[in-house]
């Protein structure tokens, strides 16, 4: 078993509070120590203190001044805040797992590139839609080239807090870039729909990937794409149990107005684990679950490094 790492959450809002419960209930190798914010009246800070964690409304400067620094900090604030905070974490030697769309560090999706955690101090968890859709595009591009990938994420208005609403531009840009850099698409596009329907809807995601004509037609390539998607869904379900395909992937044969490319459509929904937030808030659940999985993997990698050094001594 890996040595447990200590952690701090910066940003005690909905995402930070849900992450606190995720770490308590689901993390294998991480122990939460600090909850940090800037509002003394924060409900999240009050909850953390009641649960026995050290809570402070004095911000990141207070955190990096502590005698016992955490091994990991989870940034649950905003893209602009993380741009300002990231250099402070790096100077203090603290690993940062960024749940904002700031993209200071490389994109990270546990279902795609956990092996890239080595030798980086800051990783970006993309966005909730990125965690739900980038692995699917990566699965398709592992079989055939993806000319273009477009995703539409629909979330309940009640699950879109001030941070999500303030970061809509960064959300679409970061998700689109991740579809390219991590998903393997030549061109990516992301759209978010904040739906006020009552009762609140479960997060739903639509993915369209333009693929070579021979891959869209029935045959071996289509079968390989379908299998790669099924394998990816199964891997995602290991840390996001509420992640599921709504229907089987649908293939459309090549069309002239698509430039001679075919298309595969994928529809998924994400039901939250209700650790803190309601089930319909799957958009928040998937990113906190992915961050928890990433932190557990970081602890395992650090443990392996220590073991290798001991073996070499």
Automatic annotation (TrEMBL):
Pfam families: AcetDehyd-dimer (PF09290), Semialdhyde_dh (PF01118). Gene3D superfamilies: Dihydrodipicolinate Reductase, domain 2, NAD(P)-binding Rossmann-like Domain. The active site is at residue 128. It catalyses: acetaldehyde + NAD(+) + CoA = acetyl-CoA + NADH + H(+). Keywords: Aromatic hydrocarbons catabolism, NAD, Oxidoreductase. InterPro entries: Acetaldehyde_dehydrogenase, Acetylaldehyde_DH_C, NAD(P)-bd_dom_sf, Semialdehyde_DH_NAD-bd. NCBIfam families: ac_ald_DH_ac, PRK08300.1. NAD(+) binds at residues 159-167, 283. This is Acetaldehyde dehydrogenase. It comes from Micrococcoides hystricis. The keyword Transferase does not apply. The keyword Oxidoreductase applies. It comes from the Bacteria. GO terms for molecular function: acetaldehyde dehydrogenase (acetylating) activity. It is an enzyme of class 1 (oxidoreductase). Its EC number is 1.2.1.10. Residues 6-120 form the Semialdehyde dehydrogenase NAD-binding domain. Belongs to the acetaldehyde dehydrogenase family.
């Amino acid at each position: 078993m890996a040595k447990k790492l200590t952690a701090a959450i910066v940003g005690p809002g909905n995402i930070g509070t849900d992450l606190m419960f995720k770490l308590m209930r689901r993390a294998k190798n991480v122990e939460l120590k600090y909850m940090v914010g800037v509002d003394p009246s924060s409900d999240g800070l009050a909850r953390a203190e009641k649960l026995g964690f050290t809570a402070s409304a004095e911000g990141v400067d207070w955190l990096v001044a502590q005698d016992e620094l955490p091994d990991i900090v989870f940034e649950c604030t905003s893209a602009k805040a993380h741009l300002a905070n990231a250099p402070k974490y790096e100077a203090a030697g603290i690993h940062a797992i960024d749940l904002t769309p700031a993209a200071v560090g490389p994109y990270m999706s546990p279902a795609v590139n956990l092996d890239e955690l080595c030798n980086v101090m800051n990783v970006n968890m993309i966005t909730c839609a990125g965690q739900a859709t980038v692995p699917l595009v990566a699965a398709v591009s592992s079989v055939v080239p993806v000319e273009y990938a477009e995703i539409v994420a629909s979330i309940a208005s009640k699950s879109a807090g001030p941070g999500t609403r303030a970061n809509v531009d960064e959300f679409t840009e970061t998700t689109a870039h991740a579809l390219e850099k991590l998903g393997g698409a030549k061109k990516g596009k992301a759209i978010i729909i904040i739906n006020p329907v009552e009762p609140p809807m479960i997060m739903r995601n639509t993915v369209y990937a333009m693929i070579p004509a021979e891959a869209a037609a029935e045959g071996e390539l289509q079968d390989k794409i379908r299998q790669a998607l099924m394998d990816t869904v199964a891997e995602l379900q290991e840390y996001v149990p509420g992640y599921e395909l709504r229907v089987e992937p649908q293939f459309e044969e090549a069309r002239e107005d698509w430039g001679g490319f075919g298309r595969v459509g994928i529809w998924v929904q994400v039901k939250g684990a209700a650790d803190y937030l309601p089930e319909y808030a799957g958009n928040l659940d998937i990113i906190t679950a992915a961050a928890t999985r990433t932190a557990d993997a970081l602890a395992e990698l650090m443990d392996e490094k220590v073991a290798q050094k001991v073996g070499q001594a």
